[in-house]
Write a structure and sequence with these properties.
The protein is 44% helix and 11% strand. It is of the alpha/beta class. The strands form two sheets. Strands 5-4-1-6-7 form a five-stranded parallel β-sheet, sandwiched between helices. It has a two-stranded antiparallel sheet with strand order 2-3.
Length: 206
Amino acid sequence: MVRSRVSIPARRYAAYIFDLDGTLVDSMCAHYKAWRRALLLSGAPDHVFTWNEFLAHGGRSAQDVVSSVNQKHSLQLDTAAVSSLKRQCYLDLIAHEKLSAIGETISFVLHLKRSGIPYGIGTGSLAKGARATLAAAGIENLFDIIITPEDVLHGKPAPDIFLKVAEILGAPPDKCLVFEDAEPGLEAAAAAGMDSVQVLPPAKPF
């Protein structure tokens, strides 16, 4: 029996907001590989940044992740340099690897598109990486509204990204439903006053 990765509420919302990585596209393994490569190239020990540690940072900005790694492991990595290297490692990786869209959420997006119901993306990735992810999964033409940390003052778990999407969609926050896979994103949805559903990871991520 195939496990369902998301349960979509029967209630109708005015607008729907989707995280990207791990919610619309199974890109988390690619992001993790990119992080591991960037950290090792930057001189971090091999034991730094386990898969579970990575998942706990889901949705946070790259510089926040590096700062957290520095604090937890008593390192002094250059946050800007490592963040930039990670983004490049990720782009290099997905340039040669096709990513898989998550069928259950994409089917719902297609329903929204056919029905004329407003929806958009609120992601912790920067715009260049987000568009590359969508392209690598072959779904870049499904989304017109993509809000990233570049568009707001604070990234997840602050509510800014989701509130900005809601503003553009013309929907009050309490009438929006957020699809998220990671705890920081779920916290951001709650802080925005929005309902949320969690998209579960694949049964075997590796």
